[in-house]
Amino acid sequence: MIKFWPRIFSVTAIVLLLAGLPVKATVEQTLSPECREFLYMGTAPVGLEDHSLLKICQRYNSKPRYVTLYNTKDHVPVYSAYTFKRSDGEKKVDVPWMYEPQLSTSSDTGEMQQFPRGYMHQNFEDAQAVLEDYTNAVLYERGHLNPDEHQANPDDKAATYTLTNVVPQVREFHRGPWKAQEHIIRRRLNNYCRGTAYMVTGITTSGNMIRRHNIDRVAVPTYLWSAYCCIDYDHNAPYDERYKFPAFAHYGLNDKENNQILELSVPKLEEFLKKSTFVDKNFQIFVDDCVPPGSA
Questions:
Q1: CB 172 within 8 A of CB 256
Q2: For 186, phi and psi rounded to 5 degrees?
Q3: What's the CA gap between 271 and 167, in Å, rounded?
Q4: What is the DSSP letter of 193?
Q5: Cross-strand pairs, 200
Q6: Whole-angstrom Cα distance, residue 49 to residue 9?
Q7: Contact in structure between 192 and 234 (CB atoms under 8 Å)
Q8: Alpha-carbon torsion 2, 273, 138, 129, what sign?
Q9: pTM above 0.85, yes or no
């Protein structure tokens, strides 16, 4: 059975209130209203929670950009939730990889920061992945959950380059089926979503870890999954696209082979995760599975 993170939302987190600073703390027990804007109906997925999971309001250049549920034990995000922005898919270049200071120490900033040169503080890497974790992991690449090609503003794109938003992806899967599916979703939402598209992209794990200095450091996903919700869409779209609204989902095996992407409804994805992982029986990605009120 694939390991996920059990139980339900009762995270033990430290809320750091930084009085007098221009930004609020990013590690939040209860997400602030401005951070809930990235969630459909302001509600995070329910049914996957553990004491080692922390909610991060990902901030960059003084603004919230998206939300991540982060596993401080396995040093990977469980999911990132964001709003899709219409774009041409061009990648942001020359962005330094960043980290979340408040996962490790009390910090005077509520924003992701570039890795400092020559950092040696042991506590720095206690609760999150660092660049060295990926240095000798030749089978894997850093794969975004919130991909920069699903963002348009340069700052929104830059904000995706934090290690709290990436997981180890097998090279062939990352560059092949998963990247192709990101393109498909971008084109579909560009063309047929008329309002806001809410997206949640996450992982499951089964105990496989990247090791460094003979220590388990970063969990390797077994599956990657993603779902979107767009209730304001083009009802005149071709049927082969229209039936994938207001919500649809997909998942794929993070492997060199047998890694085809399967598209399916959001309830079917939830059923798959309930059978394959230790999510709670009430696991739900979107409120009412993104069925608009009064339309059922």
A1: yes
A2: -60, -45
A3: 23
A4: B
A5: 81, 227
A6: 5
A7: yes
A8: negative
A9: yes
